[in-house]
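All the exercises in this workshop are built on plain-text protein records. Sequence and backbone structure share a record, each on its own labelled line. The structure tokens are whole numbers drawn from a learned vocabulary of backbone shapes. The record below serves as our worked example for the rest of this section.
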Amino acid sequence: MPVYQRAERMGLRFRPVTAGDLGFLAALYASTRTDELALLPWSDAQKTAFLDMQFEAQHSHYLKHYPDALWLVLERAGKPVGRLYLDQWPDEHRIIDIALLPQARGQGMGAALLRDLMDDAAEASKAVGIHVEKANPAMRLYKRLGFETIADKGVYDLLRWQPLERRSSKPPGGECLKDR
């Protein structure tokens, strides 16, 4: 289990995802889509069915394409408040997904965790990468922390942060060899 000191000072604890967490993870996923779905003229039942289907598809995709990843539930005061899915590649630590419940956002926990992830990657002389939806409010946080857009992936941007010693040796075109 990794040690993320800044995040732990903010009260976050980490544990592996279990089958018993699927309900929480589905609710967390739904909380990240609330604003988007508010624009649709669907009933609550239709929205719930859509979100359940999308969560299942995402969860299956992640498990299939990132079998060696670290799957963590973030807890604060003994209650789940978020998730971190992280894959460690030879040249990059890829954040597959990071999310906090709405009531846990805007308190500095996400920034603390990202800084911990950046420190961990820098110690290994690796970059940190993540796909972020262009309209995601967290985009400002990533940019403030020094992440740069290296590829436009349509709805998403592929962002990468490089430790100082690696910034002068970016690969041509900024693409990661194992970019999925």
